[in-house]
Amino acid sequence: MVATLVRSRAMITKALSATAWEEMADGALIQEDGIITEIGTYDDLHRKHPQIPVVGSGREVMLPGFVNAHHHVGLTPVQLGSPDMPLELWFVTRMVARNVNPYLDTLYSAFEMIGSGITTVQHLHGWAPGKLPDVEKRAGEVIRAYEDIGMRVSYCFALRDQNRLVYQADEDFVASLPPELRGPMQRWFDRFQLTLEDNLDLFRNLHRSHNAKRRVRVQLAPANLHWCSDKALAAMGEVSRSNDAPIHMHLLETAYQKEYARRRGGGTAVEYLDRFGLLGPNMTLGHGVWLNEKDIDRLAETGTCICHNCSSNFRLRSGVAPLNRFEAKGINTAIGLDEAGINDDRDMLQELRLVLRAHRVPGMAEHEVPGIGQVLRMATVGGARTTSWRDGLGTLEVGKGADLSLIDWDSIAYPYLDELTPTLDAVVQRAKTSAVRAVMCDGEVIYQDGRFTRVDRDGALKALHDDLNRALADDEVERRQLSKALLPHAKCFYADYIDPARHEPFYRPSSRV
Q: Domain residues of the chain, as ranges?
């Protein structure tokens, strides 16, 4: 048995409401083999178990480990040459991405996540070239990186079986291009060779190999409505039900996706998914910016979850999600950093502040805007519920997984902080990643005093740098040329896609739908 006593100046065990939380001064816990077995004050627990090793100095605030409930890549699109653009055009610019080592790339963002207190990540993998063995190998490298560094991963591979660049059949888009672009465009499509059955086999293989591990789960990810045929949606629903596997699906990220759903099914995207029995607690919708009131009511009725990707929505001009309506309806919400946060990194402490402040609509009613307890819940138990770990993570309670972070209080309070300032307010509004002293996952300290205990960060980053400090391969050069040439054609495709008379303005206050 491996046991540890973790102590703190103040222990925040869980959110009680949007504005309240449970806090214990001099709080401490004992974990045994990754499970919390006792909670109390440090003095009491240390007196009772003097032989158990202690983590923490007593000058830190202890929080449940954060869950990044929507994540994709290591090196950010900006680092790989793709600037922030409206989402539908950004898909085209993403073609310029290098052929990156998936293991090293995954470690890169894992370093950033853990350094901000994240212990669990929902990794949505996609756009892996090749046939099933090639994709399965790359998936294995992503999972291996998380296993090596010690954090939890809920892995899923994003299924796309149609409309892989614009909201139109691949063959029709190729035919619409000038002759000189048709060959390069078709070669780009041909890189991705998984069939629908291959995608299902990939899930089955990975689920069988990894899902029983303590820190790995395998889920399903129909990438988005426009990317999935009816046959794919039906298959995903069936596999989810037969394996009790959660699903994470992008939906209604932009107004263009809202219009696509209308053209495809004559209604909303939520109504379309409902035909396949996909709504419910096992479904998480990523983004949900353009949901209407009826959609939100239906999601609340079915217990469907939503992952709020605030930074991404701002960076890609997708809009402001109606988070306040989600909260009013009691929908379980999570927080995702997506490709990267507002600072082009994976800093959950920063994202908490952004979510807290982005939805502060005018008025004085406290319940109409996010509260400190709400953003804590979203980043912990809200995110955990979108994974197979569900309520086994996200709070510091006996019987739950021992995932937590210790944040230095002095760095928050120095040179002065009024004693009237609530502890969690101070942490959420002032803590920086430099204040994260230790991160524990499954009872193991995986980060302490700026050092990762399992992986050599400097060595991994040097290897990533050296791997990319090489000349572009022929296929990378062609994709860069293709991306630049395609951008005007993508703009043309979407120029008249939305009828202004049919749709509301793109921007709207987050309290309205």
A: 3-64+399-455, 66-392
